C-alpha cells in the first residue's frame, strides 16, 4: 500500500501515471518502425524474414532462456531509456518473424493485412472491451449484428432475422455449428448429452480437420465422422453421401449433420451444395457449409456461382481474415435466423445478462456462444468493407483468381511441372509437383525430398514462402506420390511478374537437386 | 483483370499501392486521437461514455441501417479525404463505446489496458500471422512456450516440461481442460465418443457458467454437472464433494473431472484446493482450477496463499487480461507437463504439420488445441511482464486488493450498506446492497429496483460503471433478496479518493429513490 503523505491515508499506485505521455513515447516510435517496415518491404529492402531450422536458435536470439532475469527487473522502472528499450524488443520480434507484407508470402491461406486493417486493430486495442454484453460494448455490438446481417445476405440469407456472430477462427465457427445442430435438432442433449444416441456426421475426405476435431470435442468421437469420397475434381460424391447415410443408419447411428466445403484446404474444391442440400433435407439433418477458405468467392464475379445453393444451408462459416485481408482472426458463422444462437447456446447467467430489451433480439452476444468474453472481430470487417467497398473486395478476389489462373496456365506448358489441382483453380491455391529431371520418374519419397528442398530454399532466399503437402488422395488409396507444392495467391500485391519470378526460382533451385 | 498497357499482359491490381503512405495518413492521426483520448480522460475532460437504453438508437448514430449504401461506395477510392473520413468513423465508434481508460470503469472483471499493452497489440497487428505452426510464426511460438513455462512455475508447476498454451478466453481454456481430461483418462473416447459412458463432472454452485457450457458442448449434458454446495464464505464444501461423487457413481455415472475455482465470478471466493486434490486423487479424476479471475492473486504478497495447493492440479486456467491489464483476450491453460496438449488434442493433418524437430517438443502449437489458427496472445503477456516486471505486477495486484479492502472497510460502518462478500475480500470485487432508507425493510424486487436505478444513474452520470447481480445463494435457497452491486476494483488508477467519490455518488442517487 503506497501512502501519499501529502494526503493522509490516501491509497495510490504510481504504476500508471502519465499514461498519455507513455503512449506518446512508446507508440509513436513503434508506429514509425511499422511504417518503415512496410516501406522497406515495398522498396525491396526487407525480405520475407529469416528461416530457422531449430527453434532453440531463436530462444538464444530473443534471450528467452533467461526469462527469470528479464522478469525480475522492470523496464519501465529500471531502464535508463524505457521507451527505447521496449521498442527495441518490439523490433527484435518483428525482425525474427515472417514478413507477411512481403509479396512472396504465399503460405497457407492468409496474407498481410492492410492500413485500414491496422486501423481497426488499433481501435479494438484502445477500446479493450469485451463483446459479451451490450452495456460494455454498445457500438461494437450493433456493428457486429448489422455487418453479419449484410454478410449473410450475400449468401442468400435474406430474411429479417438473418445474421451471424464471429468466433475465434474457422474451427470454432465449425465447432459451434455442430453444437447448434445437436442442440436444435435434439434439444434433450442439452440436458442429457449424447447418452443413448450415436450421432453421425458426414463430410468429404478432403474436408478440414476441424470437422473431425468437432466430432471429438462434442463427444461423438472420430468414428462418428463418415468421410465421403470425392470425384476427380475433389468434390463430394453425393451418391456416396446418400449411401453412407443409409449404411450408418443400419449400423445404429443417428444422422445429425453434414458439412460441405467451399474451398477445401488442399485443393480448394467446392462441393455441390444444391445436391447435398436435398440429401440433408431428406434425412432431416443439419446442412453446414465450411467456407472458411472459399466463402469469400461470393465477392468474385467469375467464381460466385461455385457457391450456388448456399442459401439452402443451415449455417455457413466464412472468414474475412483469409481471402479479404481483414486482420486475423475474423471468422463468421452465418445463419438464416440468428435467434438459433441463443436457442442453442444460452444458459441462464443472471449475474451477466440483465437486458431483455426485445424478446426477438439479443444484444448480449455472448449468450449465443459457448464462450463468454470475445474480441469484437466483426469491427475489423466493418472497417475493411467501408474502406474498399463491395467493389474493392470484388476487385481483390477477382485479381487473386486471375493470378492463380495465370500461374496454372504458365506451368501447364512447362517441362517438369504437373498441376494436380482443378483447372481453372476453384480457389486461390495451385497444387503442383515439380520434377527437375522430367525424363526420370521419381518415387514418392524422392519427390517429397525435392519439394521440401526447393520450398526451404525459396524460404531461405528470403523471397518466397510457399507451403507443401502430401496428396490427400494418397491417404485414401494408400499410394505415395510424395509431397507437392501448395502456392496460395491471396495478396493483391502479387502480379504476374511475381509469379514469373516464382517459377524462375523454382527451376533454379530445382537444378541444385537434379 | 487489370492489364497494364505499358507492359504487355501484365496482371496487376492497384488496391494496395502506397501502403506505407496510407499507413502514415491513417494510423498517425488515429494514434493522435488515441493519445488525446487518454490524455483527456486523465484530465477529467472525457467521461465513461454514453449510456444507451435502446440499441436501435445507436444504429441511427452510426448510420448502420444504411450499410447497403455505405458498402456500395469505397471510402478509399470515392472520398475526397479518405484518411480523414475513415479516421472519423474510428472516432465515432470510440466515442460511442465505453471508455475503459476511465477510473470509474469497475464493470465485470477487466479494466483498460495500458501503453505497453497497446504496443503488443500493434505488434500482433503488423505481424498479422497465425500461431498455428512454427514456420509462419517462429519468434512468437517460442515466446509463447517460454512465457507459459515461467507462468506455470508460479503456480508450482516446476518440472522441465511444465507449460501452457493460450486460448480465446477463460471459457475456452476451461472447455479445453475438460476435453483433455476425457481424452487422457478415457482415450477410447477420441474414437468412440461418450457412447456407453455417462461422465460426471463436479463444480461448486458458485462456479462460472463455462463449466456447464463445457459439459453441454462435450456431449455430457447439463445434468452431468453436479453442483456442490458452498460454505458461508462461498467455498466448495469438500465433504459434499465426496458424498456427491459417491452418489453419482451409485446412479451410474463415471466420475471424470472436478473444477475448483480461484476467484468465483460473483463473490470472488477461492475453493480449498488441497482438500479437493485429495478427493480427486482418490477417485482418479482430473483436477482443474478455474483461475480465470483469481489466478493472478499468485502475484499478490497478501493473497498468494489462497492458491495453496495449485501445484496439485492437473490444469489451471489463468487470464492475464483480467487482473493484469494485458489486452483482451489473453487466457492461459497451464499444465504440469505440456505434452498432454498434443496427446489429448492432436490429429494427423500432414498438409499443415510438417515439423518433427524433437519428439519431446511440439513447436506447431495448433496441434495441441482443438482449433487451428490462433492470435498469439502470449506475446502481449510477455511485453507486459517485461515492462512491469514481476514486482510491478505484484504492486498492481496488491494495490487492487488494498482498494477493495478499503472500500469494504468504509461501507461496513455506513448506514444502509450491507457487504455480502467475504471480508477481507478474497478477490477484487465487493458485493453489497445499499438501502437508502435503512429503517424500512425492502422486498427483493424493491431492492433490485433500487440497485438498478443507482447503477444506471452512475453510468448516466458518466463517472462510474459498476455491475449488479442477483445473489447466487438465492438460486439455491429459492429466496429473493434482490440484486446487489458488484464493484470491481481492478485498475491501478483507482485511489481511495475514487472509492470515496463512488460511495458519495451511491448515497446521492440513493436519495432520489428513497
Protein described:
Two copies of one chain form a homodimer. Chain A contains 18 helices and 14 strands. Chain A is an alpha/beta fold. Among the domains of chain A are: 22-99, no CATH class; 151-339, Aspartate Aminotransferase, domain 2 (3-Layer(aba) Sandwich). In chain A, strands 4-10-9-8-7-5-6 form a seven-stranded mixed sheet, sandwiched between helices. In chain A, strands 3-13-14-12-11 form a five-stranded mixed sheet. Chain A has a two-stranded antiparallel sheet with strand order 1-2. In chain A, α8 packs across α10 (209-217). The radius of gyration of chain A is 25 Å and the shape is globular. The first copy, chain A, starts with a strand and ends with a helix. The relative contact order of chain A is 0.12. The model of chain A is unreliable at 1-7 (pLDDT under 50). Chains A and B meet through β2, α1, α2, α3 and α4 of A and β2, α1, α2, α3 and α4 of B.
